[in-house]
Amino acid sequence: MNLTLSEEQEELRASVRRFLADKAPSEAVRRWAESEKGYDTALWQQMAGQLGLQGIAVPEEHGGAGFGPVELGIVLEELGRSLLPSPFFATVALAGQALTASRDLEAQARWLPGIAEGSLTATVALSEGRGASLDAVTTQAVLDDGGWRLTGTKMFVVDGDAADLLLVVARADDGLGLFAMDGTAAGVTRTRLDALDLTRRLGRIELADAPATRVGPELDATEFLQKALDLSVVALAHEQVGGASACLDAAVEYAKIRVQFNRPIGSFQAIKHKCADLLLEVEAARSAAYSAAWNAAEDPAELPISAALAGSYCAEAYTHAAKENIQIHGGIGFTWEHDAHLYLKRAKSSELLFGAPRQHRARLADLAGI
Amino acid sequence: MTDTLVSRPDLRGVPDEEFRTRFRSFLTDNHPGRPPKEPTERLAWQKAWLSALYDASWAGPSWPREHGGMDLDFGKQVIWQEEYARARVPGPLGTGLGIAAPTIISYGTAEQKERWLGPMLRGDVVWAQAYSEPGAGSDLPALRTTARREGDDYVVNGQKVWNSSADIADVLFTLVRTGSQESRQKGISYLIIDAHAPGVTVRPLRDITGGAHFTEIFFEDVRVPVADRVGDEDDGWKLVRTSLGHERAAGAMNQAANYRRVLTELVELARERGLTADPVVRDTLADLEIRLRIMRLTGMRTISDIQAKGEPGAASSTSRLFIVQFEQDLHEIAVDLLGEYGALGKKDPHAVQRGRWVWGFLRTRASTIGAGTAEIQRNTIAEQVLKLPHDPAMPPR
């Protein structure tokens, strides 16, 4: 296992960071988050066209760069730092990785090129309000006259209110399956939820006999769905590392310039110790996320346990960093104008998106033979 | 001597898995068995093991070959640490290998390296650190042990404390004041003192475990050759923090390997006591499992960072803090899992596993005090890594 990024990977990181610093300053992030669409389509096109970000983990034969979870992780870490509102996480990390994990070549040929070129947004709908677990799925998929029809209600679907393509986890006679449908198909009713996280949208999707195509083989798909879920957790962990790191940087910079009692508050040990503890957690989270991505790419047998590890540690590290960032900023950190609350809201909601940390630890305990 | 060292078996080119197999069979075939109870016999037993390891060219995985080490790459160092911890053979004697050796490698003269390093690695000469004083703990630059120049000797007077392994040490590596008291870190020299020299008294210091893991040392007109000073006079302070990034990361790997075994034993203990079905206990043990794995991953990341970029990343600065918090938590959790049996001392016949967990709970109180308190470490991380401003109430660094 090598957890040190190569020169090319560092260059990827630097170019994404430059791009986001240049094109997506805080005012723009807020403006897009509040806009009707929720993101800037021109920037979305630049991300695909100039940098090839949407296709980073898409195989070359489908128009992507052919990299894997490690490079996707680098991009997500930077997106997590900037809080750029965009359908990237849902489209690339959730739907794109689910299509890849399905090994359904026809489905990949149909949708991955659109994802890579930035012309298609997509998401995965799993939760029904009882946790993001495969066991809890009750949405029914029925074969009717040669076509699949889905009935059920999906909740907390990332960008579920607007994504072009919906990949819905549902239960068929032969077990769990992944079903693709157009977001505007008949029988699909979508509403936007009032999400705590202002920079990431969540939707509710009601399916009433909605027509769909099955992705993957015509048999129980628990194995690849679990893999897709693990990959989603690892992707989220990278975003969390980026967010936590941004919070630490913001807290440290403020502590250097904020003067009270005639000295910068960063010269007080109470502040120093908080910052040192955050660095410890950010770096530990980085080890957790990077090793999980490495396993996803190189040693899939280790993916479940390292996803559970990263899912627990990175989530808590981010929330802690976001809270301490507000604390170190004091009053200004509690204002709407300061970005600190945007990070706290992203941190707390992503901590709960694919299983709470204690649920990841419960899974890890099982996997580690405790 | 150097020629024989260079002509020793060189395993750097051997494939990793073969290297693992060969080291494992060496450790199995040469395992020294259970330690003798009697302290003098035990020391001899340990020294015999270390010299056997050295003579078979299996000592010093990260050390340069010219000083008797193996100079292994990162992958093989990890394998070495894993196999060493797994085999449950005696570890190094004293604190010289981790602390004094990197300093001597960086700042010692050729003659000093030749004289000191090989015997240290072979376990023939045991080294112990003598830095802290009753009035100079966290504020080490306030130290008062003096070394007055008299011809080709220094005459050393003063008191040191909290020295681990000084009771078995042959050599003490010390910080002494050669400048004025007011000069603080600008008047400190790094001096190697013969622990058996006239005027040196080492006394055990009984600690909260009831045992004596540390000593106090008194120097009374001790004569030390000037040739035994490392670095320049009054310029010893900068030597204090020499630890090769490699060594620190390898130390983290070693700790991770040791605690891998300890945590497995703790899980076994919890299972025997019927506690692993309790969701709160499972959550707590899973948290320890996560932190242990991260400890190892960060160690690996630090070493590969050094190999790729020539310097350790920020993660290495926090690794010690991460480890000491982990080991304190692990032992306290263990004691909690014992329930009322956690209230027994180690001599009680009902004590679980001869009181090892309670003893560990007590012993690891020192983890956040020794070698720089956790508070001082946080200050250092904040100032040196995060570049937060110096506390104006503190003396300049």
Structurally, the number of domains of chain A stands at 3
Q: Looking at CATH, which topology of the largest domain in chain B would you report?
A: Butyryl-CoA Dehydrogenase, subunit A, domain 3
Number of strands of chain B: 8
The first-level CATH class name of the largest domain in chain A: Mainly Alpha
Q: From the alpha-carbon coordinates, what is the Rg of chain B to the nearest angstrom?
A: 22 Å
The CATH architecture term of the largest domain in chain B is Up-down Bundle
Q: What would your notes on this structure say?
A:
The complex is a heterodimer of chains A (about 375) and B (about 400). By secondary structure, chain A is α+β, with helices and mostly antiparallel strands. Chain A has three domains: about 5-120, Butyryl-Coa Dehydrogenase, subunit A, domain 1; about 125-220, Butyryl-CoA Dehydrogenase, subunit A, domain 2, CATH 2.40.110; about 225-365, Butyryl-CoA Dehydrogenase, subunit A, domain 3. Chain A is built from eleven helices and nine strands. Chain B folds into three domains: about 1-90, no CATH class; about 125-240, Butyryl-CoA Dehydrogenase, subunit A, domain 2; about 245-385, Butyryl-CoA Dehydrogenase, subunit A, domain 3, CATH 1.20.140. Chain B is built from twelve helices and eight strands. Chain B has a four-stranded mixed β-sheet. In chain B, a hairpin with an 8-residue loop joins strand 6 (about 200-205) and strand 7 (about 215-225). At the A-B interface, helix 7, strand 9, helix 8, helix 9 and helix 11 of A face helix 9, helix 10 and helix 12 of B.
